[in-house]
Design a protein that fits this description.
alpha+beta, 4-stranded antiparallel beta sheet, 3-stranded mixed beta sheet, about 30% helix
Length: about 300
């Protein structure tokens, strides 16, 4: 089992989503009030030959709520991917065939994605699936019993593809929150997390140096971009351009063009490149600055 790669595109009116879990072929459009970046009306467009009385995505109130949140979160690149991923997964709410396994897959995927993006996994799951935590000044956040039960279930349910639990037990070395270098102060970041792991001792010929990457996206072909605009949506370029700058003003390294990377894939592809460069330049600290344009948003700087 796996999840779909939900496709999202900004249009002149808002956001267009495709390939939501359970809705193959359907297109969902969300109007955005650009001044406040808040979601307005939601419309679904059926694939050809759909029965007139068929179920529709807009008939699921819980799904519509997550669709609106996903559309609004597009401004938060790259952390908007937590919402897009949720739309490509079965909802953990309700009973369904193979519900325990599907729920474990969903919870583990969102949990692990939140950790990779420097978010609190419990806070992210609570927000995505409408499980309000109890918070009071000076008190530790109390998450819902349902959420804790889901997480425990994900830790006990075995993934037949790996023979391991969908969600492994918490490991500080692996799971302690780290901030994605694009931004700070995101509402889903841990508020009273354990102290972040100390900066590792870096040894090697590049110790004491920092390589800063600036990631942007190529422009789409002019003709296709014009045709897309005429049809009411915005086309993004297919590849990521990466430029590097050393803190000591040395000659920057030659960096690859990341080919065929969708906005959804960008965070993990950039993280992989950071790891690759840390191995290539022993001792160096590598950080990435990803432009919003690289995540598929309109050009607006970093």
């Amino acid at each position: 089992m796996g999840f779909l790669d939900v496709r999202a595109a900004l249009t002149t009116e808002g956001v267009r989503l495709r390939d939501l879990y359970g809705w193959t072929g359907w297109v969902v459009e969300v109007d955005i009030h650009w001044r406040t970046w808040s979601a307005g009306s939601v419309r679904d467009i059926a694939p050809p030959n759909t029965r007139r009385n068929a179920r529709r995505p807009c008939g699921d109130r819980e799904l519509v709520g997550r669709i609106k949140k996903a559309a609004e979160a597009m401004r938060e690149a790259p952390r908007s991917s937590i919402w897009l991923i949720s739309l490509g997964l079965p909802s953990p709410h309700g009973k369904k065939k193979d519900s325990a396994q599907l729920r474990a897959m969903t919870i583990s995927t969102v949990y692990q994605t939140a950790v990779r993006l420097g978010l609190s996994p419990r806070r992210a799951l609570s927000e995505v699936y409408g499980l309000a935590p109890t918070e009071a000044p000076g008190e530790r956040t109390q998450y819902s019993r349902k959420l804790e039960r889901w997480i425990e279930q994900a830790r006990k349910t075995i993934d037949p593809a790996t023979g391991q639990p969908y969600l492994l037990e918490y490991d500080e070395e692996r799971d302690a929150p780290r901030l994605w270098p694009v931004g700070r102060g995101h509402p889903l970041e841990p508020r009273r997390a354990r102290p972040m792991l100390p900066e590792p001792v870096r040894e090697g010929p590049y110790a004491g140096r920092t390589l800063t990457l600036r990631v942007s996206r190529t422009s789409p072909p002019e003709r296709e971009a014009r045709e897309a605009q005429e049809q009411g949506y915005r086309l993004v370029g297919p590849d990521l351009l990466v430029e590097g700058r050393w803190s000591h003003r040395e000659t920057p390294p030659t960096l690859p063009v990341l080919r065929g990377v969708s906005p959804n894939e960008t965070p993990l592809r950039v993280l992989a490149l950071v790891k690759e460069l840390e191995a290539r330049f022993p001792g160096a600290k590598v950080v990435a600055k990803v432009a919003a344009q690289a995540m598929g948003s309109p050009d607006s700087g970093d």
